[in-house]
Design brief:
Elements lengths: L2 E7 L4 E2 L4 E8 L2 E9 L19 E8 H7 L12 E8 L6 E7 L4 E3 L4
Parallel strand pairs: 1-7
Antiparallel strand pairs: 1-2, 3-4, 3-5, 5-6, 7-8
Length: 116
């Protein structure tokens, strides 16, 4: 299956439909944009970000536009807001395995883990 992501809005108790996300490959401090997308009604991308045939061993970054999402939902955020964009840097060591990178997020906190 390759690489996938899923975002849950813990403030509202549901998927973060409409959140903007960017995927990068990274090499040290350098990041190269692979694609930008908007999460669907289930808080997921439409299809895998990479499948097992195209993902490579290496390092990646997912950047989630948390502030933009919550502002669009009508949440009154302080200026400057606590979380703006959440960047998750992670490594892929085994291209024959599935890497699922979920994000649980509110305007004030987030959590992630390697899912299945």
């Amino acid at each position: 299956m390759g690489l996938s992501t899923h975002v849950l809005d813990t403030m509202h108790g549901g998927p973060a439909a409409g959140m903007s996300v960017a995927l990068y490959t990274t090499d040290g401090e350098q990041a190269t944009l692979v694609r930008q997308f908007t999460l669907n009604h289930d808080g997921r991308s439409d299809g895998p970000l990479y499948d097992n045939n195209t993902i490579k061993v290496g390092t990646y970054r997912l950047v989630f536009d948390v502030a933009g999402y919550f502002k669009a939902k009508g949440v009154k955020l302080p200026e400057p807001n606590f979380l703006n964009k959440v960047a998750l840097d992670f490594g892929v060591a085994h291209t024959d395995q599935h890497y699922h990178v979920p994000l649980l997020v509110s305007p004030w906190s987030y959590s992630t883990y390697r899912g299945s």
